[in-house]
Amino acid sequence: GRVPDARPDYQFNGSLKMKMTDLRRRVEKFVKTYPTPLAAGLTVLLIIAGVWHAASRPNQRVIATMDNLAQLTENIRRNYKNRPDYWGLSTENVIQKQIAPTGMLRNGRLTSPVAAEISVGGDENGSMVMPGMRSFYIALKNLSKKDCVDSAVYPLSEKIKLGLLSVTIKNGGEETVFQWGGENALPVSKEKAAKICRKKSIILWNFE
Asked: Cα angle at 177 between 100 and 5, to 5 degrees?
C-alpha cells in the first residue's frame, strides 16, 4: 500500500515571523521609552541580527525537500529490509512500486521544490542497483548554489544518518566526496559546501 508521506515542518517560517514581530514591538517600545542615540544603535543591531538569523537558516523549500528525502530513505530501507541487497532499486522502480512520498511525484517523475530532477538507484542517473550492492544513491540535480549549500549541510536525523556512507557534491566534471573521517569529513561543513557548490550542482547521498 501507499507509504506515509513526509510532513514538512511548516511551523518554522511562522514561528520566525512571530519572533521577528515580537522583537520589532519590543524595540519600538524601547525606543519610545528611551529616545536616545543608544536606543537607535540598539535598533540597528537588533535588525541586523534578525536579518542574519533568517538568512542563515535553510528556506522552507529545502526543509520540505530534505524531509521528503528522509522519508524516501526510510521507505526504501523498509521495502528491502528482508533482502540481502538493494538489487532492482531504481528511479523507475521507486515510482512504479509507490515507494516515493506523493510529495515527490509530479507527472510521473521524482522532483522537489529545489531540484528539477531526483534520481534513485546505483548511481546519479538512477540506474538499477545490481546484485550484491548493499547501498543506494539519492541524487538532487540542478540545484542553485544556495540550495546546494543548504541541502548539503542539512542536519539529518540520527536514524537516517546512521546508514549514511557518503555525500558527493558535483559541478560539471569536478566532484568532492565527503565521508566519515578524512580530509573531507562528514558532516559537510557550510564553509566547504559554499566553496564547492555552484549553479546547477548535483548532490548524491549514498545510503546503506
From this structure: 15
DSSP 152-167: HH----HHHHTTEEEE
Separation between Cα atoms, residue 205 and residue 169, nearest integer Å = 9
CA distances from 205 to 26, 50, 108, 116, 141 (A): 44, 32, 22, 17, 12
Q: What is the tens place of the pLDDT at every residue in 38-95? A: 655 555 444 554 444 444 566 899 999 999 999 999 999 999 999 999 999 999 999 9
CA distance 39 to 33: 9
What is the pTM assigned to this prediction? 0.73
Omega of the bond leading into 187 within 30 degrees of 0 (cis)? yes
The number of beta carbons lying within 10 Å of the beta carbon of residue 179 is: 15
Q: Per-residue DSSP letters for 9-56?
A: -THHHHHHHHHHHHHHHHHHHHHHHS-SHHHHHHHHHHHHHHHHHHHH
- The three cell numbers of residue 81 are 529490509
d(CA 25, CA 33): 12
What are the cell numbers at 26?
519590543
Q: 106-155: per-residue pLDDT in tens?
A: 988 999 999 879 999 999 999 999 999 999 999 999 999 999 999 999 99
